[in-house]
Amino acid sequence: MANSESARMNKAEYWDERYQSADDPPPREWHLGYDQLEGYLQEHVYPHWPADASIMHPGAGSSHLPLEMRKRGGYTNITCAEFSPAVIAQMQPLDPDIKWLQCDVRDMSASGVGSDSFDVVFDKACFEALCGWGPKHLLKEIPDVIVMDTRRYSQEAYRILKPGGWFVIITVFEARYVHHLLKCEGTNWEDVHAPKALSADGWMQTRSFCLRKPANQTTQNND
Which UniProt keywords apply (predicted)? Predict the structure, then answer.
């Protein structure tokens, strides 16, 4: 992907243009689809979530993951957050029981998302979009805008999670990069379990990170 395109991936206008000009109809996947993730979810994730868990998919885009988590995972309280009205218009008719919220995941309070509202924040490639798909091998080379955007996002995920809530990140980025950006001031993330590889070795290996907001910590007074 060209650097000029990558630099625009944190902008709503970029995604609106992309979804309106896409030739293939939704849903479309970044990384692994539900079929590839189901075994991992069934073994390591679902057993820890109640059947009525409230799940937020930030930057859900045109992924079918939320649809399949509802149909095959059995979770019915699902909200997808997107700042592209074009993709919301495409996706909402596919499953009217899923709630769609137009917002910026770096400031969900502006769209009325309250603190301590969700049991799970499930991110598949939203974190990477904020990074512009441009990770550097050395932490000192991360552009300031990526540090600012990803940490604002992490703080928002922390805020909207209930005490004991889970933050699941599916990404191709390495642990040191994920932890450096997401474990930041204003958060107190606990590791639920060690990062897990979900695809074959290589530059684009997909990994899962599961973080948790401490069970004794609320953020209601931040609203």
Answer: Methyltransferase, Transferase
CA–CA distances in Å: residue 106 to residues 4, 37, 84, 110, 113:
22, 26, 14, 10, 12
Distant-in-sequence, close-in-space partners of 173: CB < 8 Å, separation ≥ 6 = 127, 128, 131, 135, 207
pLDDT at residue 134, as a whole number: 55
Q: Which has the closest alpha carbon to 208: 218, 223, 219, 193? A: 193
CATH code that applies to domain 3-222: 3.40.50.150
Q: Is the Cβ–Cβ distance between 213 and 162 less than 8 Å? A: yes
Which among 148, 209, 157 has a CA at the least distance from the CA of 187?
Answer: 157
C-alpha pair distances (Å), 84 with each of 14, 100, 178: 9, 11, 25
Domain ranges of the chain: 3-222
pLDDT tens per residue across span 138-168: 456 788 888 999 999 999 999 999 999 999 9
Strands 190-197 and 99-102: unpaired
Is residue 67 helix, strand or coil? helix
Strand partners, 211: 167, 191
The predicted structure's pLDDT at residue 24: 57
Q: Give the number of other Cβ atoms within 10 Å of residue 69's Cβ.
A: 24
Instruction: Enter the tokens of residue 116.
Output: 């301590």
How many Cβ atoms sit within 10 Å of the Cβ of residue 23? 4
